From TrEMBL:
PANTHER family: METALLOPROTEASE, PROCESSING PROTEASE. Residues 208-378 form the Peptidase M16 C-terminal domain. Keywords: Signal. The keyword Signal applies. Gene3D superfamilies: Metalloenzyme, LuxS/M16 peptidase-like. Residues 67-196 form the Peptidase M16 N-terminal domain. One of its GO terms (molecular function) is metal ion binding. It comes from the Bacteria. It comes from Novosphingobium malaysiense. Residues 1-27 form the signal peptide. This is Peptidase M16. InterPro entries: Metalloenz_LuxS/M16, MPP/UQCRC_Complex, Pept_M16_N, Peptidase_M16_C.
Length: 466
C-alpha cells in the first residue's frame, strides 16, 4: 500500500510538471506582461439631421440580428424650475400609456419585437430605449415615437404614479446615504437644480396634471432629441421609419442651459442619527475641469475610484474603518464635482476623515509611482472598451458623450490619451482641483460621540456648525 501511495504521488507530480525531489523549491511562475493597448476606433457611423432639428446617428455593429434604439431628449430635472421631481413625475406618467395604448399593451407590443420599452429620467437627459430583433426596428422606432410625442397623460393614472414616487422619496430619505447625498449636493450646488435632490412630500403631492402636460409640451421636441440606432439593421428601412415617425414632430425649444457656479463656499454639514453604529461621510467639491478629463479620471481612480485605490487600501484594508469607500468624478453638463464617500464605524469617523485628507495631500505632494500609473491606465482602457462591447453600451456612451459636448472624437482618442498619461499629469490635476481648504464635508451619524472626533480634525475643526 505504501508503494502505491508513493507511486500515485509521483505520478500526480509528474502530471503537474513538478519535480518530486524532497526539499525542492518550486519556482513561482511570472505571468506575462500585458501587451500594449490597441488603438480603439468606433465603427463607421452616419449622423444626419431632420428638417425639424432632430439628430440621428446610425452605427452598424456586431453580428447578432438585433438592434438597440435609443432616443435621448435633452430634458430632465434641469427643467424642473423649482418643482422638484416634476420631470420624474412626467416621465413615470408617460410610461402608463401612449397613442391610446396602455402600459400593458405597450409592453406586449415591445415583447412581440423581442425586447422591452423603457424610459429613464435624469438630470439633463431623458432616454427611451428598446433592444429588438433587427427586422422589427421600424416598428420599435414607431413605438418610441408614440411614447415621446403622444403620451396619454391620463388623470386616473396620475395618483398611482404619484403614490409610487411618494413611497420612493420616503424610503430614500430614511437612508443615511440619501440624507448625506442631499446635503452634499445642496452645499455644492446652491440654488441650482443639481442641488435639489428630493422634493418634499407636500411638493410632490401638489403637482397637477396640467403641470405635467405643460412640462411635456415645453421640454419634449425634435430639436432636443438625438436618436441612436446601433446593431444590425436595414439602413433604408430605418431611415424611412425615422422620417415617418419623427419627421412631423415640432422642433420645440432649445435645450436649457443653467451653468452651476464653481465657487460655492465650502461647508461642513452635520446631521444627527442618534445611536447609529455608523457615520455616512462625504468629502468633496465642485471642480473646474469637466468630468471627461482623462487625467482627472485617472487621478480619481487611483485616489479612490476603484477597489485597489489608495483611500480604499488605507481606510478599508489597513485600518478597517469602512467596508466600501468610493470616489466619484461626476459627468455633469452644467458643472462637475468630485467626492469621496464612505460609511465608517461611528468610533472611527474622525480618524477616517483625517486619513482621506491625508491621501488627498499625498496625491498633491508626491507623484504616483510608475507601477501605479500603468495599473490605472490598464484599468481605465480595459473598462472603457468593455463598456462599449454591447449595443446598449455603445448607444448609451455616445448619448452621454454627445450631451457633454465630447462626442465620437473623444471616444476615438480616449485609449491614446489615457496611454499617454504620466505621473505628473495625475499630480498636477490633484494640485489644481483638490485643495483641501475648499472641500465641503457632510457627516450623518451619532453626533454625541462623533462631534468630539471632528473637533480633532484640523481641516474642519474651525468650520463645525454650532
Amino acid at each position: 500500500m505504501r508503494m502505491i501511495l508513493t507511486f500515485a504521488a509521483t505520478t500526480a507530480a509528474l502530471a503537474l510538471g513538478i519535480a518530486s525531489v524532497p526539499g525542492a523549491v518550486i519556482a513561482k511562475e511570472v505571468p506575462p506582461a500585458p501587451s500594449a493597448p490597441r488603438p480603439f476606433t468606433l465603427p463607421q457611423m452616419t449622423t444626419y439631421t431632420l428638417d425639424n432639428g432632430m439628430k440621428v446617428t446610425l452605427i452598424p455593429y456586431g453580428n447578432v440580428p438585433k438592434v438597440n434604439i435609443l432616443a435621448a431628449v435633452q430634458t430632465g430635472n434641469i427643467d424642473d424650475d423649482g418643482n422638484v421631481w416634476l420631470a420624474d413625475l412626467t416621465g413615470a406618467l408617460m410610461q402608463k400609456g401612449a397613442a391610446g395604448m396602455d402600459a400593458s399593451q405597450m409592453a406586449e407590443a415591445a415583447a412581440g419585437m423581442g425586447g422591452n420599452l423603457s424610459l429613464s429620467t435624469g438630470l439633463n437627459l431623458t432616454t427611451a430605449n428598446m433592444d429588438v430583433l433587427s427586422e422589427d426596428a421600424p416598428q420599435a422606432i414607431g413605438l418610441i415615437a408614440d411614447l415621446l410625442q403622444r403620451p396619454d397623460l391620463e388623470v386616473d393614472q396620475l395618483e398611482k404614479v404619484r403614490a409610487d414616487l411618494l413611497r420612493n422619496v420616503a424610503v430614500a430619505k430614511s437612508t443615511p446615504e440619501s440624507i448625506a447625498s442631499e446635503a452634499f449636493q445642496g452645499a455644492i450646488y446652491p440654488d441650482h437644480p443639481y442641488g435639489r435632490v428630493f422634493p418634499t412630500q407636500e411638493q410632490l403631492a401638489g403637482y397637477t396634471l396640467d403641470q405635467v402636460k405643460a412640462f411635456h409640451a415645453q421640454n419634449f421636441g425634435a430639436a432636443r432629441t438625438h436618436i441612436y440606432v446601433v446593431g444590425q439593421y436595414d439602413e433604408a428601412g430605418v431611415r424611412e421609419a425615422i422620417a415617418k415617425a419623427f419627421g412631423d414632430w415640432k422642433s420645440g425649444a432649445a435645450a436649457t442651459s443653467l451653468p452651476a457656479p464653481v465657487n460655492a463656499a465650502p461647508k461642513v454639514v452635520l446631521i444627527d442619527r442618534p445611536g447609529a453604529p455608523q457615520s455616512q461621510v462625504i468629502i468633496g467639491k465642485r471642480v473646474d475641469k469637466p468630468g471627461g478629463d482623462v487625467a482627472f479620471k485617472a487621478m480619481n481612480t487611483l485616489l479612490g475610484g476603484y477597489f485597489s485605490s489608495r483611500i480604499t487600501r488605507n481606510i478599508r484594508e489597513d485600518k478597517g474603518y469602512t467596508y466600501s469607500p468610493h470616489g466619484v468624478l461626476s459627468d455633469r453638463v452644467e458643472g462637475a464635482h468630485w467626492l469621496e464617500e464612505a460609511a465608517v464605524t461611528a468610533e472611527s469617523t474622525g480618524p477616517a476623515i483625517t486619513e482621506i485628507y491625508k491621501e488627498v495631500r499625498r496625491m498633491r505632494d508626491e507623484p504616483p509611482t510608475a507601477g501605479e500609473v500603468q495599473g490605472i491606465k490598464n484599468y481605465m482602457n480595459g473598462t472603457f472598451v468593455i463598456g462599449l462591447a454591447s449595443r446598449g453600451g455603445m448607444a448609451g456612451s455616445l448619448a452621454t458623450y454627445d450631451l457633454l459636448g465630447l462626442g465620437a472624437d473623444y471616444m476615438n482618442s480616449y485609449v491614446g490619451k489615457v496611454s499617454a498619461l504620466t505621473a505628473s499629469d495625475l499630480q498636477n490635476v490633484a494640485k489644481q482641483e483638490l485643495p483641501t481648504d475648499r472641500m465641503s464635508v457632510v457627516v450623518v451619524g451619532p453626533l454625541e460621540s462623533v462631534r468630539p472626533q471632528l473637533e480633532r480634525v484640523p481641516e474642519i475643526a474651525e468650520e463645525l456648525p454650532e
